[in-house]
Amino acid sequence: MSFFIKRISRRTIVQALIALPALSLFRTLPNADPAHADPHRAGPTPANPNEIVEVNGWILKRSDLA
Amino acid sequence: MIFDSCDAFRAANFAAKVCILGSGPAGTTIARKLGAAGIPVVVLEAGSREFSDESQDFYRGTTVGDFYFDLDVTRLRFMGGSSNHWAGWCRVLDKQDFEPKAWAPDTGWPIRRADIEPFLPEVHDILELPGFRPDVPVSDDIRWVQLIKSPAVRFGEKFADELDKSRNVAVVLNTYATELAGDGKRVTGARLWSNGQDAGAFNADYFIVCTGGLENSRLLLWSNQRSNGGVVPNAAALGRYWMEHPTFEGGNAILADYGEFEVDAVNEAFFSPTPAAMERLQIMNFGIRLIETPYPGVKSLIADLACTAPDMAEWMSAKLSQNLRCAAQLYVAWEQAPLASNRIELSTTDVDHAGVPRIELHWKKSKLEHRTLLEGLRLFGKTLIEKNLGRVRIADWIANGGDYPTNDETAGHHHMGGTRMGTDVTKSVVDANCKVHGMDNLYVGGSSVFCTSGECNPTTTITALACRLGDHLAKVVAV
């Protein structure tokens, strides 16, 4: 830890921590434009209403859920 | 003929060719078959005609591992054996129960279901059963199966008159063999105990051990120890591969229409997996028993569902106002994977009044069985959804991988294995004809010869195997 602190100022560390939550915005950027989306990366698919799910011990169809 | 003591039997000078130990479903059935074939048989019954605490005390023992019933409560020691407290549920093991399961070691029998099917008409007469209906597929995964609630024949009561009048069968009450002696080829005699005291030596040409799924192992283990291996020369599997039918409330179901399934006289229906589903999921056989839930149970179930799926709960609530019979408890009984580590041992510290070591039962359920329980309920739930018949809720302790509750049914009082049938002498005790490997005149009857347990109650299969053994012995002894 001391080695790390010697080379990076405390101000830089604080700025990095503040910026962390915003990283997820950049992570989703490639999918924002379907034309440039990576075809090998599955994006969120619409839920199948007949899919069988287990919630709180109940075996249900997804469409059963509120 | 029925005698109340060994002394009375000896005074009658009845020369028995075959000695059967135990008068439960197996022993009585074999005795009747041999008697009908004109072969003189003596049946030694440890108890009397009625239950007594003194007799039951011989059955006390201990269990190591999972919670199990007291060993002097889970079986009965008087004429008719444990048929005196069975509930009467009947079904023969499934065809696939006799086949090996590639995913479960040490499964598979040396005989097939077809080998006992010719005896089923006799079994139906003995147990007073109507014919079984074929299974009905509900989905690719689940089949409706029939368990017949029979009149629960008490073998001691039903056949007492017939045995008393028989000229070929002598039943000796209050008398049993504390040990058999053998020379590694034949049983050379038995030490008897009658009415609380040693009753000397006894001999017959053949001995058939039918003292129950716990006691068969105990008698043979003790006899073998006393005879330095002369009673069961290949004893590696003796007492091992012991099995039960663990039985627990697995959850609940809400049903669009309870009348959708054929139910029996007590409003229960039974379901099992298809062979394809068992193979696909690599699980054991199981039986789900659907029992109508009392009304307060239905309300709390719907309230629980409302937290997860309000629309579905509202629909169920509407059904509730129309028809109170719309929910069920799901009890699951399943086939245990046969494990050598589940075994009967002789206690090193505790003996009964005759000086015979008591049983120390080592019994533990495996991970495969927990998976069978969980996947079985999932299969049933999926089937209800696919067929639009209802929804299933799995009990929390199963879904979350918790411990088995100790206040549930626990098991079926079905004691199986210990002297299992097989061809490999290191993994079995008797051959396909129930003859002890390496012995010329020693046979075993009852559920202790089961290689696997299937999911259904064992008495029907026990009786069918006993009919088969009776026929076989009639031919062997007559030579």
TrEMBL record, chain A:
Protein name: Uncharacterized protein
Biological source species: Mesorhizobium sangaii
Lineage per the UniProt record: Bacteria, Pseudomonadati, Pseudomonadota, Alphaproteobacteria, Hyphomicrobiales
TrEMBL record, chain B:
Every Glucose-methanol-choline oxidoreductase C-terminal domain range: 338-466
Record flagged with keyword Oxidoreductase: yes
Any one Gene Ontology molecular-function term assigned to this protein's record: oxidoreductase activity, acting on CH-OH group of donors
Named cofactor requirement(s): FAD
Residues that span the membrane, as ranges: none
Keywords linked to the UniProt accession: FAD, Flavoprotein, Oxidoreductase
Pfam (any one): GMC_oxred_C
InterPro entries in the record: FAD/NAD-bd_sf, GMC_OxRtase_C, P2Ox-like
Family label: Belongs to the GMC oxidoreductase family.
Protein name: Choline dehydrogenase-like flavoprotein
